[in-house]
């Protein structure tokens, strides 16, 4: 039954078991369970999505009142038009060299994802998550913020590390949980962490990233610091309580923080309507809390850069937090454990109306006369060689199935300042057993 339609059946036909309801003319109560528009076997059609012309959205001043951004919470900030030219008040007017750097990082991330996906399929690691189709979000956001700013990311923002120059070998060591993993195998593969690169440890329970980002920014303000934080979650995590707690604190205390929702339409196998996308845009939730909010074309690298830059300027000048919904599409599965053809049409990614982010930035550079297919092919070859070389170095240190046979005692370290007696007993027993096993094998 369509949402809002009054049932035609009378409740007195359903209420014989309850004498109080016999003979009444009350409608029967029902629940609405959101369903995606298309399932496997259907022909996807995104004509229901309103895609405004590039350059159409107004750009308010960074010190505007939050209510002035309400129209932008339902609009879509776009810079790159169908002619691949940048237009409108949100055009950041970036130098061609900057655009080429961004494109190179985006290509690197896509190649890195493909290599690590294959590594998982080859049994070299247990798990991987790609960000295919979302490369224009994390990388431009990194360029828009200062090097010292802190990110509280999800597992699909590997571009933050790549854009900040974090070694690919170190990322792979973490994925393989080998001796080069500075996290010592204590996080799932792809859940990186590096303070020096402003990359807070990823949590599989994504909602926690928001209150931590808000708390970090509150601490920065209390200390009189100049750094800000950017918190990241997916559309599904907006249904968690942490989301609302974070927005409450951010609004009440005018916290200098940027809160981003990557709305890629799917939370594992649940489409965004389960998290409320049928009722309102995610950006509208920010305006409901009195926070300046933007809805941005997440496949438009220039629009992403401009929105994050705007939000950063707002936060740094103590004009309050900003909430950004990046509207995009998860082109592949949630993870290597997921088969998206089980819940959505196989060719749905190709029907997405906002296009491929890498191809759009490439086409923009070509339109400027600052790029061409030959140079793009050469750069892609270089990036591929770089990723392959990093993988070779990481695999020299070891792959996941080879781990766990040495340094057994390390699993008990770095948990307590002073190890409790019962943990020490467990450690000693584990070491004794490992030693006996090695001796029986003649090692």
Search tags:
36% helix, alpha/beta, single chain, 443 residues, two-stranded antiparallel ribbon, 7 strands, 7% strand, 5-stranded parallel beta sheet, disordered N terminus, 12 helices
What would you note in describing this structure?
It is built from twelve helices and seven strands. The protein has 443 residues and is an alpha/beta fold. The strands form two sheets. Strands 1-2-3-7-6 form a five-stranded parallel beta sheet, with helices on both faces. It has a two-stranded antiparallel sheet with strand order 4-5. Helix 1 (96-121) packs across helix 11, helix 2 (135-144) packs parallel to helix 8 (301-316) and helix 5 packs parallel to helix 6 (241-252). The radius of gyration is 25 Å and the shape is globular. Residues 1-12 have low confidence and may be disordered.
Rg calc: 25 Å
Tell me what portion of residues adopts beta-strand conformation.
5-15%
Largest sheet: 5 strands, parallel
- Inertia-based shape: globular
Spatial ordering of strands, largest sheet: 1-2-3-7-6
């Amino acid at each position: 039954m369509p949402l809002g339609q009054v049932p035609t059946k009378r409740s007195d036909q359903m209420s014989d078991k309850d004498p109080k309801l016999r003979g009444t003319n009350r409608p029967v109560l029902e629940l609405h369970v959101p369903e995606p528009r298309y399932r496997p076997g259907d022909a996807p059609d995104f004509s229901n999505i309103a895609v405004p012309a590039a350059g159409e959205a107004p750009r308010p001043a960074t010190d505007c009142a939050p209510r002035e951004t309400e129209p932008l919470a339902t609009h879509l900030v776009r810079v790159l038009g169908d002619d691949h030219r940048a237009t409108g008040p949100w055009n950041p007017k970036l130098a061609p060299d900057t655009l080429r750097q961004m494109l190179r990082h985006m290509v690197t991330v896509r190649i890195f994802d493909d290599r690590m996906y294959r590594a998982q399929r080859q049994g070299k690691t247990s798990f991987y998550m790609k960000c295919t189709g979302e490369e224009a979000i994390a990388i431009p956001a990194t360029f828009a913020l200062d090097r010292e700013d802190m990110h509280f990311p999800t597992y699909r923002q590997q571009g933050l590390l790549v854009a900040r120059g974090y070694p690919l070998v170190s990322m792979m060591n973490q994925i393989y949980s080998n001796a080069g993993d500075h996290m010592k195998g204590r996080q799932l593969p792809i859940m990186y962490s590096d303070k020096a690169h402003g990359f807070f440890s990823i949590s599989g329970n994504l909602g926690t990233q928001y209150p931590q980002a808000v708390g970090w920014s509150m601490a920065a303000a209390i200390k009189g610091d100049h750094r800000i934080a950017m918190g990241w979650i997916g559309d599904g995590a907006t249904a968690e309580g942490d989301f609302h707690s974070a927005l409450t604190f951010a609004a009440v205390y005018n916290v200098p923080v940027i809160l981003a929702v990557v709305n890629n339409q799917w939370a594992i196998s649940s489409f965004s309507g389960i998290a409320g996308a049928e009722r309102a845009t995610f950006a509208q939730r920010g305006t409901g809390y009195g926070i300046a909010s933007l809805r941005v074309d997440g496949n438009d690298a220039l629009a992403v850069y401009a929105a994050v830059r705007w939000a950063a300027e707002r936060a740094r000048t103590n004009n309050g937090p900003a909430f950004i919904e990046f509207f995009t599409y998860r082109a592949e599965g949630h993870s290597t454990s997921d088969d998206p053809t089980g819940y959505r049409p196989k060719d749905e990614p190709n029907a997405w109306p906002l296009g491929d982010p890498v191809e759009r930035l490439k086409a923009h550079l070509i339109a400027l006369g600052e790029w061409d297919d030959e140079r793009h092919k050469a750069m892609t070859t270089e990036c591929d060689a770089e990723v392959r070389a990093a993988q070779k170095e990481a695999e020299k240190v070891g792959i996941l199935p080879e781990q766990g046979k040495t340094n057994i005692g390390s699993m008990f370290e770095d948990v307590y300042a002073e190890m409790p007696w019962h943990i020490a007993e467990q450690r000693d027993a584990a070491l004794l057993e490992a030693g006996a096993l090695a001796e029986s094998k003649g090692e």
